[in-house]
Amino acid sequence: xxxxxxxxAGTLLALGATTAHAASDGxxxxxxxxxxxxxxxxxxxxxxxxxxxxxxxxxxGGAANTYEPGSGDVSFTSTFCVHYNNxxxxxxxxxxxxxxxxxxxxxxxxxxxxxxxxxxDEGDDxxxxxxxxxxxxxxxxxxxxxxxxxxxxxxxxxAFVLDSGSxxxxxxxxxxxxxxxxxxxxx
Length: 187
What we know:
CATH superfamily: CFA/I fimbrial subunit E, pilin domain
Mean pLDDT: 83
């Protein structure tokens, strides 16, 4: 009997320790004081904004978005923002609809393809790094803790085709791809 009372008292003490966040009523008296805890849970969130279509051009003076063989590499650089409410480190995966794990590919819809490359400039400081298609890469200072980067995009993406190899041997036409940028927290 004595042992069961000790076990019961120990159980009540253990249960009482887990109820620290509970409201309490005041007693019946001339004045009465009750308490209520206030709690807010902030979810971990990331967001990518400001992406633009990458219109490749070699600046040859011809029509925009037109590649003219022998006139230089074609490229386009665009800024974008990554927001993370906890820290600045994130993982980035870039997928190519046409590449599907085999590399970045522009396609004309008739089976003709041109390989292209993508670079990321984390922090918009001029230090671009190649980003392989379907690879998840950790960028330690890519994100801003300020929503929408305070209106100033904090990264660059550059897509480019070299003026040699496959672009020189494909028929004329419009070659396209869609990139998916997947951001995940990595504090």
